[in-house]
Batch of 2 targets.
Target 1
Amino acid sequence: MAPDSRGTTPGTRPGVRILVVGGGYVGMYTALRLQRKLKQRLKSGDAEIVVVTPEPYMTYQPFLPEAAAGSISPRHVVVPLRRVLNDCTIVIGEARRIDHAKRTATVTTLATGEDGTGALEIAYDEIVIAPGSVSRTLPIPGLAEFGIGFKTVEEAIGLRNHVIEQMDIASATRDPAIRDAALTFVFVGGGYAGVEALAELEDMARYTARYYHNIKPADLKWILVEASGRILPEVGETMGTYAIGELRGRNIDVRLDTRLDTCEDRVAVLSDGSRFPTRTLVWTAGVKPAPLLAATDLPLTERGRLRCTATLGVEDMPHAWAAGDAAAVPDLTASEPGRETAPNAQHAVRQAKVLADNVLASVDGRPLKEYRHAYVGSVASLGLHKGVAHVYGRKLKGYPAWLMHRTYHLSRVPTFNRKARVLAEWTLSGLFKREIVSLGSLEHPRAEFELAAGGGSGTPGLPGPGRQKGPGESPDDPRKDS
């Protein structure tokens, strides 16, 4: 599409076009508010909202640990964008470059490689840049080959299947070394993602062990590696210390002021000299801005985030807006100057509301509002009926904190449909036993057919040479073939 052909591609509506890049917290909530405010203009064709997102859904990430533990169905932690943003034009694809000087974004879609027409060039009048973040990795030997992330629903479900598969391997093998490595689970990163994922999966695996004749909960080895001297810094030092005691009380090895030096050959070597043969290494040690930001002509901070004003506009770039993980937004409530708002969901959802209103104000020539929100605190789950919270200066732990965690996030998950489904699943999980089934074959649904059609050696239904390799597996990975 040529830069001057606004209103013809991807939609056919003339008038102002607002391009939203990203379908996460900021992207979805901004588009949702714009959709409500511009309802009449959208119907008349005076406005168009285009949302570019790599996935057709928004993932409610605080529920990923419970999805991994089987407490919530994976489909219920995501919100289908086409249903929620029914008045927007949804483009499933990746924004590769933004040329704000020309007001164009270069986008590749699922059809780009099929039809041979190349990437789309979508022109816009206003742009909201909210591509989120990606895992921040380090050049640690073996990490790229064997590490497992925990940012997407696919990774969460894959990790659940993987943990149960390791228990199957440990139960079946006659090699003590393979058994010990299969039952050793190393998590790197003591923030929300690492602690909640480890706590929920340890809970699930401990429960699952009762159904194995030769695995006891004490056989499972869980290790949390954190480079700083504390975990869960968002809930405060006191609650963080309590969380460490709670985890260690469950025989979870919490290593503070410790780094992962290498994980080559499936051996996790820590900076304190410890060595742990393991088949599971989960990396949750922080995030970094999406690579798209480096492919723009917009100003960035030294950390690679978009330099924004308190009105959520990109500095010195009219008609460009950003919030969430991608934006460095000044915190007007902070006592010390120069402080930025934390890149978390609490700010992202609230920023989206102000951002949408400011986009409309910019279009209509009205004054802009500044974003101002004092951080109210945090809640974290440590497994079923266990948690920590520090909200409005009050500290809670144990069951009350866990209940607050669930109540808060149930109130925040988008749409009544998802709220009702999640609440129903929580209710049913309290009445019935946990699901302990691994559906790892879902990751490679054609493997069995390929094996049968190719006539390769092996028995259909059992692992064989025709199986494709999964996330975190090396080319000669024996994860399922041991």
Note: The first helix runs from residue 25 to 37.
Target 2
Amino acid sequence: MAASPMSRFEIFIGTWNTTGEVLATEASPAGSLVATDTYRWLPGKHFIVHEVDARFDGKPARSMEVMGFDAATTAYFSRSYDDQGMTEAFVLALDGRRWTIQGKTVRFEGAFNARKDRLTGLWEIKGGRGRWQPWIRIELSRA
């Protein structure tokens, strides 16, 4: 039996402690982020559920994401849902230790360290006139 295209995403499975520096943007002031990110396989290991329990400057924010592989387009994808009723579709790419997430309004670029127990990177948000702005410098450390 061939390995699932999702097997490369095993690197995420588990619990991660997340910290971040929220940068001032056109829409919001600077602040801080503390979160717990949990990744788990759905049965069959074709999809990963990613749950986030975060605090932006002490204010709770929760979200859930489903990650998978679309055989028709041969692309990795995810769909996120948050406690404010927002949802967004993303295209994912894991190239070696480099991890990217591309959405219509937010995107991420980062990398795992050599031991693959730390992920650091930068989230950007689309601001006025469609310009990307640095938004959150983030670090996830395996718990």
Note: The first strand starts at residue 14 and ends at 22.
